[in-house]
Amino acid sequence: MAHLSPSGKWDARYLGPVPHDSSYYAKCMLGGALACGATHAGITPLDVAKCNMQVDPAKYKGLRSGLSTLVREEGSRGIWKGFGPTFVGYSLQGMFKYGLYELFKDVYMNLAGEEASNKYKPAIWLAGSASAEVFADIALCPLEMTKVKIQTSPSGTFPTSFGAALTEMSKTKIETRYPFGSLVPLWSRQIPYTMAKFFFFEKIVQLFYTHVFTEPKETYSKPTQLGVTFASGYLAGVVCAIVSHPADSLVSLLGKPSNKGKSVGQIASETGIANLATKGLGTRVIMIGTLTGFQWWIYDSFKSSMGLGTTGGK
């Protein structure tokens, strides 16, 4: 039985096509960095428009008009503001999010034992993804704060180049609450989001392999398996966008100058829950669906090219 460790005991690290040793987790970390860094940085213009729609809805009414306002006022470079911190921040976040998810999943399965692991699979997915995200957000936070500041500051009031922006954030620590001032709102947005993202992804993959592709997973070609990965990632992303949108709106509103010194509760009650839940949601559903689909696809493509197999199954 391949599921047994060399000592003969059941071990979650030996369930997959290859044993989960430190080189396996390192490859997963690299795959996660590639998946998140490239995808988040690639949609910087959508992100700039979304942040500005949340912070100044009177001026930035919709995605298209918001982007054209930005281009008109700041040129085509205006829509790529914050590319640097986005790329670095989300590469680090992806490295921990995916790499540590694989690690925590194995740790929790081994703690639970074979029977409980099979019986309570969803609980393992949720615990593993939540644990990984705690660390992923600590890595992301300073860069996310810098990115939001670059993207939502009126033109000319804050440096847009990566190095200069980081220096400025360090200088204005009191006012910007840098480097970890947004950590709690970030956790409140990202932990439920990541739990939903990994849970729904694993669940949808399981449904595909249980009801649609009913033969053993390894009998299907790589393109088929990666197709299942992309579709599951896309659908999981749509659910996630809806779940996490109110907290995402709050994170953007916290960076708005007129909200300086206000508590999260105060900003929430002034904005109203309907606005928090719906403003910019359409954009975010398309954005997060596509993003999550591609992230899982890049991650699993990398994993399968390394001979590690794709994520999930029956």
From TrEMBL:
<keyword id="KW-0999">Mitochondrion inner membrane</keyword>
<keyword id="KW-0496">Mitochondrion</keyword>
<dbReference type="InterPro" id="IPR018108">
    <property type="entry name" value="MCP_transmembrane"/>
</dbReference>
<dbReference type="Pfam" id="PF00153">
    <property type="entry name" value="Mito_carr"/>
</dbReference>
<keyword id="KW-1133">Transmembrane helix</keyword>
<keyword id="KW-0813">Transport</keyword>
<feature type="repeat" description="Solcar">
    <location>
        <begin position="23"/>
        <end position="107"/>
    </location>
</feature>
<dbReference type="GO" id="GO:0005743">
    <property type="term" value="C:mitochondrial inner membrane"/>
</dbReference>
<keyword id="KW-0677">Repeat</keyword>
<dbReference type="GO" id="GO:1990547">
    <property type="term" value="P:mitochondrial phosphate ion transmembrane transport"/>
</dbReference>
<dbReference type="GO" id="GO:0005315">
    <property type="term" value="F:phosphate transmembrane transporter activity"/>
</dbReference>
<dbReference type="InterPro" id="IPR023395">
    <property type="entry name" value="MCP_dom_sf"/>
</dbReference>
<dbReference type="InterPro" id="IPR044677">
    <property type="entry name" value="SLC25A3/Pic2/Mir1-like"/>
</dbReference>
<keyword id="KW-0812">Transmembrane</keyword>
<protein>
    <submittedName>
        <fullName>Mitochondrial carrier protein</fullName>
    </submittedName>
</protein>
<feature type="repeat" description="Solcar">
    <location>
        <begin position="120"/>
        <end position="207"/>
    </location>
</feature>
<keyword id="KW-0472">Membrane</keyword>
<comment type="similarity">
    <text>Belongs to the mitochondrial carrier (TC 2.A.29) family.</text>
</comment>
